[in-house]
Amino acid sequence: MAKEAVSFFWFRRDLRLEDNLGLFQALQSQHPVIPLFIFDETILEPLPNNDPRVGFIHESLAAINTKLLEFGTSLLVKKGKPSEVWESLLNDYNIQEVYWNKDYEPNAIQRDLVVDNLLVSKGVTVLAFKDQVIFEEAEIVKADGLPYTVYTPFKNKWLEKYNSIAPVQEWDATPYFSNFFKSTFEFPSLGQIGFILSSIKVKPHNLKLVANYHETRDFPALDSTSYLSPHLRFGTVSIRKLVNWAVRKNPVFLSELIWREFFMQILFHFPKVKNRNFKSAYDGIEWRNDEADFKRWCEGKTGYPMVDAGMRQLNETGYMHNRVRMVVASFLCKHLLIEWQWGEAYFAEKLLDYEMAANVGNWQWAAGTGCDAAPYFRVFNPEIQQKKFDEKGIYIRQWIAEFDLGYGQPMVEHAMARDRAIATYKAGIVK
């Protein structure tokens, strides 16, 4: 007996049912749609078994599955290498079409190419859609077709294009949920995937906190940020809804969303930046890369309260305030002369909102080696940053219990470190 023809929608960085373009398009298919998520073993293998991001993904998938059950369907969850999972699915189902939303990171592009070739070789139609950005790699380019490498002209072109279509269309798939394949797939526990629940949690996002974003964003003690970044990273919120909201409510917050797309297109066009300097002239810098110094930075024991508070917040919660991120990154690269790749890798391990494009882009900005980066001779003074943005020490005391008991001496003197950094950069930059 012939198997029923079906289509698949593959969830990846878009863990939501609402305003999901690829899902919307899949549900227009003439075949019933099986929703799928694959826990990619190549991503999971190096992670600790209590990685909070895996727990958040599982929690988000469970919420999707609960909603789907209301419509007589369920989420098919698999674990393995994606190409091998798809090989198995091709044997189990009569797959006619596969839909997904595009991912622009180098490893994801390669993964999708392999899966696309496999599916097409078996006669399956693959359809991929733009969902995690407003404008993708070829949409915001210079007149000569080359990518922007400076943020402000990119932003201006981005706004011009957005204003020509505003508001960007949102996609409600709810009326088409009857087109899902009728099923009751068993939803796996976190333990069945090989993980345990972490004490670190992704916080709910709150847009109301960013109404005065332009006035409060630099003061970590106010705790006035939206906590949106992990939700954007994993797609539990729609970038279209966010941008349409930000355009009306707060242009400074909108600028941060545009920075996100700027760094994403930089990574797409210049994939070397994932582990190499955008500015190759900086490749000759002789970094100290002292492992003992790096350990003190990781543990928040540098003797600079703003730096230490940020690192302890990161280690305990998976979050770090954006202003503080700039301070700790500058300190690592400039004061300690440790390569940005060391800090980037540590953030990748700890941050709940880790996204390669933004993480690499911001670390190279701090190090001075990236596109449109802070100049190498700008060296943040952690003590001045503390006085400007946490004058009463409220944020610092939140994370440094021993602060009022006679805090330790700085591990390096600022003026000396600043002079050393500038001299080292000058000597290492290729003219």
Automatic annotation (TrEMBL):
Its cofactor is (6R)-5,10-methylene-5,6,7,8-tetrahydrofolate; FAD. It comes from the Bacteria. Residues 5-134 form the Photolyase/cryptochrome alpha/beta domain. Pfam families: DNA_photolyase, FAD_binding_7. InterPro entries: Crypto/Photolyase_FAD-like_sf (IPR036134), Crypto/Photolyase_N_sf (IPR036155), Cryptochr/Photolyase_FAD-bd (IPR005101), Cryptochrome/DNA_photolyase_1 (IPR002081), DNA_photolyase_1_CS_C (IPR018394), DNA_photolyase_N (IPR006050), Rossmann-like_a/b/a_fold (IPR014729). Keywords: Chromophore, FAD, Flavoprotein. Belongs to the DNA photolyase family. This is Deoxyribodipyrimidine photo-lyase.
